[in-house]
Amino acid sequence: MNGGKSKFKKKFIKELEEYFNIGSNFLKEEIIEGTTYTKITPKEFASNLPTLQGFCYKIGIHRDTFYLWLKQAEDDNYIEEDKEDKKKLSDTYKKAKENQENIWLQNSLKGLYSPAFAIFLGKNVFGYKDKTEQEITGNFSLIDLHKKSQNE
């Protein structure tokens, strides 16, 4: 922040889109040398997962500043001239997060991330959860449960 004003620039919208708009993986030649042969085969590698931290570092701001811009875009009391641009930034960020999740999903399904990392990211960044199921046994009916809840 600079004297109460952030250094928001309209060009950050396009830069954000470009930063997150990458393919999920790439092919690279792998050279395997044996004693009597050399084998060159294409191998699939995961692209670097684009992150908000990386983008903020690239444009020279702290992540808190970026979150402030997103908050200002949604704040009805914020009436600065750059509000519409910040709304565009917010929309672009939502799309970028969807692409980030897709990159994670594609690379996880292909086994390009370690399982522990894929699970950690899924739960802590994208909000996925383990599904647990419980089987309830006993002699009761939904009508009995409804009557019981009415009496309480």
- What's the arrangement of strands in the largest beta sheet? 1-2
Structural class: mainly alpha
The main pleated sheet reads as: 2 strands, antiparallel
Strand percent estimate: 5-15%
Runs with pLDDT <50, length 5+?
none
- The general outline is flat
Mean residue pLDDT: 88
How many E-type strands? 2
Distinct helical segment count: 6
Q: What would a concise description of this structure say?
A:
The chain has six helices and two strands.
Walk me through this protein's architecture.
The protein has 152 residues and is mainly alpha-helical. It has a domain at 11-23 and 50-127. 51% of the residues lie in helices and 12% in strands. A hairpin with a 4-residue loop joins strand 1 (25-33) and strand 2 (38-46). The longest helix has 27 residues, at 83-109. It starts with 10 loop residues before the first helix and ends with a helix. The model has no long low-confidence stretch (mean pLDDT 88).
